[in-house]
Amino acid sequence: MMSKYIYYNDNKYWLITVTVLIGMGPSSAMTSSSQTLPPSSLPSPTSPPQPSQVQGVTVTRGVSDGSPSLTVSWTAESGSGITYTVRYSTSSGTETEPPSGASTTSGVTGTSTTLSGLTQGTMNYIWVAAVSSGGQGLYSTRMSETT
Predict the structure, then answer these.
(1) Residue 126: CB partners within 8 Å, gap ≥ 6?
(2) How many other CB atoms are found less than 10 A from the CB of residue 98?
(3) Partner of 85 at 20 to 30 A CA spacing, among 3, 9, 19, 119?
(4) Spatial CB neighbours of 88, under 8 Å, sequence gap ≥ 6
(5) Do 139 and 56 contact (CB within 8 A), yes or no?
(6) What does the CA dihedral 74, 78, 82, 85 come to, rounded to 10 degrees?
(7) Which residues are bridge partners to 67 per DSSP?
(8) pLDDT, tens digit, for every residue of 37-65?
């Protein structure tokens, strides 16, 4: 009986082959061998999935350093290594896509951030997306608030 296993250790993939000969007497044997596999022979790794669309976004008006600000909060995505990108603009974009000229705050590691230096009395539109090693998820539904 021969079995082959792929094993990952020390940043290398190993092919382990185990052969078991079942019998009686001195000719009965068990052998094993291993070899480092070249990358071309490895199965294609499965990419991690993109995060889900961010939910539970809320926006609260405030003042930061004497100027109008907005604090944006959202529900955390499950998984490790998740960061968030917050886009905001005085142009409305679409319900789930910010306009190309929107300002960006990226690499947010918590579930809130404060947007400061905004103009008093202006409508601001906000979108939040989760980012992981699998890429960026869909933007949240657009939120809006006047400073």
Answers:
(1) 57, 59, 70, 72, 86, 87, 88, 115, 142, 143, 144, 145
(2) 23
(3) 119
(4) 70, 72, 98, 102, 103, 105, 115, 124, 125, 126, 127
(5) no
(6) -30
(7) 64
(8) 566 655 556 667 889 999 999 999 999 88
- 0.90 exceeded by pTM: no
Per-position DSSP letters for 74-111, written without gaps between them: -PPPSSSS-EEEEEEESS--BTTB--TT-EEEEEE-SS
Which two tokens mark 77?
């995505």
d(CA 128, CA 86): 5
